[in-house]
Amino acid sequence: MYKVEIVKNISKKEWNQNLTKSSYSTYYQTYEHIEGNEKSEYFPIFIQIINDEDEVVGQLGIQIVKTSILYSSPLLRKFLKLISSVTTRGIWVYGPIIHVEDRKQRLEILENILNANNTIIEEYGLVVLEGFSPPLDDLIDKNYLKLFLDYGYKISKHVTYVTDLSNVLDEIWSKVQKYTKINVKRAIKRGISIKELETFEETKQVVNLHQKWAETKGIGIINQQKESEDLWNKHNSKVEKTFLAFKENELISSISLSHFNKIVIPTQVLNSYSKATSLGGPALTWRAITWAKEFNMKIYDITGGPLIQENESDPDNTGALTHYKRKWGGEEKIHYNFLKPGKRVKYELYQKMFRILRIYHNLISKTRPS
């Protein structure tokens, strides 16, 4: 028998310490990523499965999101206020984390987690609960996936690319595609410099770059000061590292890396639309990989996107970005998106409303500067 705990508050130290019992746990399931604060429009839910020996054998951290408030515009704010009653949703990334290898026990633990998810959907009136499986969990099999299907989840395949940092740097470099290598070298020749974020003033520059990106989507960051403070606090928390790319003293690109359990993930990549950006991005990615190697990390997960088959539609235009990430030579890892709708009428309304938002953002994006 297992005991199930569903809580909003938990010991950060104990939660993270338990995560390290599995080699595939990443930053996305840490307390630091899941937690909210008094200013957030989301709050955390922590699920723990405990066995008869009082050991934590399963974990899943979920964010309950009321609405998206990082970006906004006068029109968007009115729209989000109008639909707020049908936008509360649950999101998890790179979970569940199950700390046993016996496949029968794994399914028992997973079933307890899925029952806990049902409780959360009902208690908070979620329009949808959506999550992504851990790409490095090699024990996910057809029975594991079938259990999600049995519980009413829709499943789609995603792909990411991971670099094994136990290899020597020359071997890692040898797997990077030729044209990408050329761009890394060109960046140096054309005076693009890479440095680590060091001052609060630099965080303001990063947020300003973020604001410029948001404007190309017809939106803006509501509170730039708060965003700067959050970035600075994360940078000083020892779980995040940010690197900056400059061209003639102008910030053209940035990359923020989150790391936990010796696995590094780029959690935010920002670019201006200047011509130099095409070189700033590759230079930053290579610096991120070399930094991870230097600090004895074991995996660099460049992330990816939906696994889109030939002739399949790509409404969010994710294929180009996934293609770029493939060029860095990481091993392809298939993982899964799980989506469980809440009440049917609310979910259908939610889909229609966010289809309108997608069209709006795509139209604005087409007018962005080249």
Description:
The chain has helices at about 10-20, 30-35, 75-85, 105-125, 140-150, 170-175, 180-190, 200-215, 225-235, 275-295, 320-325, 345-365, and strands at about 5, 40-50, 55-65, 70, 90-95, 95-100, 130, 155-165, 190-195, 220, 240-245, 250-260, 265-270, 300, 305, 330-340. By secondary structure, the chain is an alpha+beta fold. The strands form 2 sheets. Strands 1, 2, 3, 5, 6, 7, 8, 9, 11, 12, 13, 14, 15 and 16 form a 14-stranded mixed β-sheet that branches. Strands 4-10 form a two-stranded antiparallel ribbon. Helix 10 links the parallel strand 13 and strand 14. The longest helix is centred in the N-terminal third of the chain and has 22 residues, at about 105-125.
Helix and strand arrangement:
Elements: E1 3-7, H1 12-19, H2 31-34, E2 42-50, E3 56-65, E4 71-72, H3 74-83, E5 89-93, E6 97-98, H4 103-124, E7 128-132, H5 142-150, E8 154-164, H6 169-174, H7 178-189, E9 192-196, H8 200-215, E10 220-221, H9 224-235, E11 240-247, E12 250-260, E13 263-271, H10 277-294, E14 299-301, E15 305-306, H11 319-326, E16 331-341, H12 344-365
Parallel strand pairs: 5-7, 13-14
Antiparallel strand pairs: 1-2, 2-3, 3-5, 3-6, 4-10, 7-16, 8-14, 8-15, 8-16, 9-11, 11-12, 12-13
Helix content, binned percent: 25-40%
Q: In terms of structural class, how would the helical and strand content be classed?
A: alpha+beta
Mean pLDDT: 86
Order of helices and strands: EHHEEEHEEHEHEHHEHEHEEEHEEHEH
Q: Quaternary state, please?
A: single chain
Envelope shape:
globular
The largest sheet is: 14 strands, mixed
Number of strands: 16
Spatial separation of the terminal alpha carbons: 60 Å
Beta-strand percentage?
25-35%
| Total count of helical runs of at least 4 residues | 12
Evaluate the radius of gyration. 21 Å
Pick out the low-confidence regions: 363-370
